[in-house]
Amino acid sequence: MGQAELVHTELIIHSNIITYGNAADEAITASIRKEIEDMWNAPNATVRVKNTNYRVIFRISASYHPDLIPEEIFENTDPLNNYFRIEEFAIGNISFVDGLNCNTGYFKRDNLQDGSTTAAHEYGHTIGLDHPTLLDIRGQGKPGIMYPRGSIVDAAYQYNPAARAGDNTNGGTMNPRNREVTENDIRLIKLHRLNWKNNQARVGEFSSIWHPDHATLR
Length: 218
What we know:
With about 220 residues, the protein is α/β, with parallel strands linked by helices. It has 4 helices and 8 strands. The chain has 2 domains: about 1-130 and about 190-215, no CATH class; about 130-180, no CATH class. The protein has helices at about 25-40, 70-75, 120-125, 185-190, and strands spanning about 1-5, 10-20, 45-50, 50-65, 80-85, 95, 105-110, 200-205. Strand 6 (about 95) and strand 7 form a beta hairpin. The protein is globular, with a radius of gyration of 18 Å. It starts with a strand and ends in a 15-residue tail after the last strand. It comes from Terrimonas ginsenosidimutans.
C-alpha cells in the first residue's frame, strides 16, 4: 500500500515498511526497504496519467518497531504504512501478505535473505498485483517479479539448471532470486485508474491485520 503523487514529470509512490516480531531487526528491515525500492525502480518506467507522461518512482522508507501493539495497526489511517511480522517459523513455510491491495503480512525470515526478491514480490501484492495465470513461461526469458515459487522457467532461471523443468524435488522450478520487476509489472498497477484528487491518490487498501507469532499456534 502507498500514496501516489504527481510532481512535475514524476509519479512518485511513497510507502513505509514497519516490521515487528521476534526475527525482525534493524538490519533485515533496512534490507527489505532497499530491495523493494531498488527492484521497483529498476525498470525506469513511464506511465500516462491525465494525458501526461510521468516517470514512475518508488520511494520506500522503513522502520523496526519491536514494541508494536495490535492497536497501532488496527487504528492506523496513514496509507503509507505497511506492517509485516517477521519470524523464523511460518505456517506453510512461506511468507505472505493479506490479499491484494493490503497493508499487512507475515514474513518468514529465511525467505528474506539478500537477493531473494520475496519482499519485492509481496510488496507487489500490496499494490494490487496478483500472480500471473500462466506459470509455464519457458522461452520467455527472465521471470517477472509476480511469478510465484514453483513457476516453470527456462533452465538458466531454475534452482538447478540441470534439472528437468517442473521437477520440484531436484530444483527444476524458478529460483526466486532470478525474478525482476518489468515495465509490464508497472503497467499492471493501472496507475491511470486511481482516484486522483489534487494530484494525489491512494494505492491499495487497509487490511489492518495484526499477526501473532505462528510458533505459538502449533
